Amino acid sequence: MAESGTERRVGFFTDTTLCIGCKACEVACKEWNDVPADGFDFLGMSYDNTGELSADSWRHVAFIEQVVPDASASEPGLRWLMSSDVCKHCTHAACLDVCPTGAIFRTEFDTVVVQADVCNGCGYCVSACPFGVIGQREGDGRAWKCTMCYDRLHGGLEPACAKACPTASIQFGPLDELRIRARDRVEELHERGVSSARLYLDGDNDGIGGAGAFFLLLDEPEVYGLPPDPVVPTRDLASAWRAAAASGVALVAGVALAFARDRR
Amino acid sequence: MGTSFGRGGATTFQQDLQFSDCIVIMGSNMAECHPVGFQWVMEAKERGATVIHVDPRFTRTSAVADVFVPLRAGSDIAFLGGIVNYIIANGREFREYVGRYTNAGTIIEDEFRDTEDLDGLFSGWDPEQRAYDNTSWQYKDMPTAASAGSREVAGAHGQAAGSHGATHAGRPPHSDPTLEHPQCVFQILKRHFARYTPEVVEDACGVPRDLFVRVAEALCANSGPERTSAFCYAVGWTQHTVGVQYIRTAAIIQLLLGNIGRPGGGIMALRGHASIQGSTDVPTLYDILPGYIPQPHAREHQTLDRFVEEDAAPTGYWGNMKAYTVSLLKAWWGDAATEQNDFRFDYLPRITGDHSTYQSVLGMLDGWVHGFLLLGENPAVGSAHSKLHRRALAKLDWLVVRDLYEVESASFWYDAPEIESGELRTADIATEVFLLPAAAHTEKPGTFTNTQRLLQWRHQAVEPSGDRRSDLWFAYHLGRIIREKLHASTLERDRPLLDLTWNYPVAGETEDPSAEAVLREINGWDDRDQPLSSYTQLKDDGSTACGCWIYCGCYAGGVNQVARRKPAREQSWVAPEWGWAWPANRRLLYNRASASPSGEPWSARKQYVWWDAARREWTGADVPDFDLHKPPDYEPDPGARAGDATAGDEPFIMQADGVGWLFAPAGLVDGPLPAHYEPHESPVTNPLYSQQANPARDLFFRRENPYNDGDAYPFVATTYRVTEHHTAGAMSRTLAHLAELQPAMFCEVSPELARQRGLQHGGWATISTARTAIEARVLVTDRVRPLRVQGHTVHQVGLPYHWGTRGLTTGDAANDLFPLALDPNVHIQEVKAATCDIRPGRRPRGGRDG
């Protein structure tokens, strides 16, 4: 489905073991891309007052507080997971597939970008995205999401979030290189005894044909609010149409048969 | 730090943390408050270091630490003292380092009595004056001259050193290199901390003893010739009535373990603002002049020679204090300062007592402070007992506020909580407020001095819009206008102003003075007007001028060294060509200690600066913090002075005796050794002494400043920052991208306390003290844990202090809750531990709403 870009495919590798929850990615993204405020609501979700990705939040740091057993101490320990979520820039991008105006396109960097001046605000992409990434902006109606800082990529710069990340939790680069680095990192963590380290969306054989943004997690994806087995809804479109056509034919045949019997 | 090592600055730099084998972060939430510097802690962790976080709350720093230790707020000296005891009791000290580089062997006066002898007091306590006479704390037969620094309490009591080393003359006459003499520092230290056992730590701090031992063992195992450990602290240590002694305890640990002056070691003081270090180097403080030269006292210091004699040791680098002072006077008064007129030493303003910010505020309430200039400060939110501050501002005749926004300290007269409650009425407030818009850092050139003494030049990006002006513009033109108004004055008292060198070049439409010209003056010049390159060139004969001796060299060769920006990948990891660090561009202080007494690295793994015998000079990764050509076996002549009096194996060159101070015979008003005292307000009885709190702490018994007593306030309250906001909030509550990330004042409580008090997660709570009550949204979290202390459960309430009445998100100011109770050495407020109560629901509105 993806056209091959004229440049090497780039992406994000977010290593959550290095995240310190500073939200510099959220702020840098909004600064660079001039994304408006997303509401001043106290959510009580640990230190997360962003809540989720949306038209006005293109990076979202999730905070998960866990009480975990600690073999070396008398009391249970605490684990505070932090993870900066972002658009996955899917190989099979549902938002792009369903966009009727062609506002969403695949760039030469193999990223997925919405052109604001073409978007008509139909919102099909919003329901199509298996991750709930894209949203419509209030008072504007158009769909907005992470562009992987398309303008910065043109200038040879890395995206603002990766640039701002002080601990290299967000790493940007050619996707194939990042995948190698990520596998090495998991191996290293396993050797260090961090057995829960695992990669999420690091291959091409998942329901979205591979992601341009993948993650090293310390728990199940659901814990971070990520779908464990995301599937692009348009993947089954052809078979769905075939099934629909078959049932339509069967229906017509059945009706015809009934009428034929009636006449008899 | 100044008392222990000789200089009032972080001993190391953040990049060096990456080479640490064990990092203890305590009194600091480094990941949240210094996220950029924290990358070096993460780097160390990746290299295999053990990262330990000790804190009342499980924070974002704890989340990435290997070991988290929950601790009762205000019990840090008990914990750290426990480590001192663990080291000594188990013989884990770095023996050669301790013997050679510290005052462990020095014999103390026979009259000295410890807190162990006097149940929580040291000898010399005067209960009437509430102050110590430190005569009995001295080195035996070596009475200290009146020491340098804080001069506010003249006479027999409270002679204290400020931020630089206290005064001694040369080597102490009595010492025992075996460290066995019962009156030597090492044995006194051993006895003093002997009762700080793991059991007592558990009882005082609520830290399980096995967890404590794990920390102590990690520190010991990661120290010695082959390994080093570092401490990082911030205002979680300083904002206590015994805060300076918290840092002293860490200094003692690091000296015992041999971790000062070595890579991956040290004590990293993390400052809370962009240029807080700079604001003490070229100070905004009342009791010091630039470069930590003490402010002269009105009665004590009639002449320059008397001043130098009393405040500087003849040995160690403070032996050159006269040259530093004369050069400063020449920078300020130029040709008007001559040898004949004592270089116009008489022009320097004198102090007569404690003129710190809290005294000034009380002066407003009492009607003897009439006007106030507030530059980039918001005490109506950010200072302890901010309610008292707002009431004080309302008593002024005039108030000038220079800020980026109309902060609460400028708007109090119409929107303070006291207006809402009816305690104050706008019509009754006569204060005339002048709000002057300030230029942001992007709108002006200049320097920041960061947390690691590093000066970095900041270029102007855009012209300030509208009436915004830089602080430099304000100070320069204010001075210019005052001088013009006084032009015809013949009064003696106006001469200091009229004789000032006030000739900075100005440029542009707004006549902005040149920041680079100011930097050049700070660096200093010789009698041919050539820029100096090192403070060793400063003279006491008036032939050199220098605005701040420790910054001398920042404009060496007429080049702005501060503006250097060579990327790290193009130079060594120490990055000496990025910016410029005081002193003399040294990044790691006291680095002579990274080599053994004979000058070789302690180990290949930890080599940093060493003696190159072939070239007969010190060399290594950094600028050696030592006379470059002074060999390790150099022995000073008996009459040697200043730097010449420091032997070749004495790394602490600012100290008169050349060594680090385990025991501080002078320099501190509340004891030569740290002792655990409870916070002024504490629900716990001191488990170690019957002396409950620091006896010398500053208290203010006034109607406006009531202290909690009795059982009405059973919980511990502690304040802090979160990464999303900046201090008193003026720069973050006003920006949507930051304010939305933490959009409400909240409090953090444990599920147990929430159950006990009926607090609803996400709902409202009212937190009260004898001062006032505030409201906050409730965040119930396992990250705040009840602690078992002396058989009782102690609950702690966490309170971020960023909110006020203005901005995109508003809320009550946590600082309203805290009293004025201060550390006696530096007059810093105790807002990290006090007592409070907490109840569900919003606070009473008062006034018309009843």
Spans where pLDDT lies below 50 across 5 or more residues of chain A: none
Strand order of the largest sheet of chain A: 8-1-10-9
Arithmetic mean of pLDDT of chain B: 94
Which class of secondary structure composition applies to the elements of chain A? alpha+beta
Number of strands of chain B: 29
Count every beta strand of chain A, where a strand is a DSSP E run of 2 or more residues: 10
- Oligomeric nature of the chains: heterodimer
Report mean pLDDT of chain A, rounded to a whole number. Answer: 92
End-to-end separation of chain A in angstroms reads 52 Å
Regions with little confidence, pLDDT below 50 for 5+ residues of chain B: 145-164
User: Total number of helical segments of chain A?
Assistant: 7
> What is the helix content of chain A?
25-40%
Using only CA atoms, what is the Rg of chain B? 26 Å
Main beta sheet strand tally, sense and closure of chain B:
6 strands, mixed
β-strand amount of chain A: 15-25%
| Biggest sheet descriptor of chain A | 4 strands, mixed
Overall outline of chain B: globular
Strand order of the largest sheet of chain B: 22-24-23-29-21-27
Beta-strand proportion of chain B: 5-15%
Alpha-carbon distance between the termini of chain B? 51 Å
The ordered string of helix (H) and strand (E) elements of chain A is: EHEEHEEHEEHHEHEEH
